[in-house]
Write a structure and sequence with these properties.
3 helices, single chain, alpha+beta, 3-stranded mixed beta sheet, GMP Synthetase, Chain A, domain 3, 3-stranded antiparallel beta sheet, 2 domains
């Protein structure tokens, strides 16, 4: 079983979350909601989790296909429901940008496999009604 311990550290809503291995994440609420803006928001952590989960899948799949990944950048954008509590993620879009001699078709297939089959975070969000879309691109590095 996983365990996370949260300790309030900053103002009213600032927390330091630590896992059983000692990894730390800081969370807080926005200034508008009474926080100090000293950490990432809890709902944003879901986007971090989605990007990280699918990124691990993507790299694993591409390396098994003998693709060389020189660089990887993932951008995750989301829109939440308006004027409801709780406000869930309505739409999320992920963009994967890779550099290196990566076959674009293999990249797209890896992203599809992650988002539709392997990523537990994506499936959790989908079951909550989130519409998840993605795009992939192999970029030419700037010298």
């Amino acid at each position: 079983m996983n365990k996370i311990v949260l300790q309030r550290t900053e103002g009213r809503f600032g927390f330091e979350a630590t896992d059983e291995k000692g990894h730390v994440v800081l969370t807080d609420s926005s200034l508008e909601n009474g926080g100090n803006d000293s950490g990432i928001r809890p709902m944003q952590l879901m986007l971090v989790a989605l990007g990280s989960c699918s990124g691990i899948d993507l790299v694993t799949i591409l390396l098994k296909q003998r693709q060389q990944i020189d660089g990887l950048k993932i951008e995750v954008e989301g829109e939440r429901e308006k004027d409801v509590i709780p406000s869930l993620w309505k739409n999320v879009h992920i963009s994967y940008f890779l550099t290196g001699p990566v076959d674009p078709e293999k990249l797209e297939k890896a992203a599809s496999l992650s988002m539709e089959k392997y990523c537990s975070v994506a499936e959790t969000m989908r079951r909550a009604g989130t519409v998840i879309t993605w795009e992939t691109a192999v970029l030419t590095p700037v010298n």
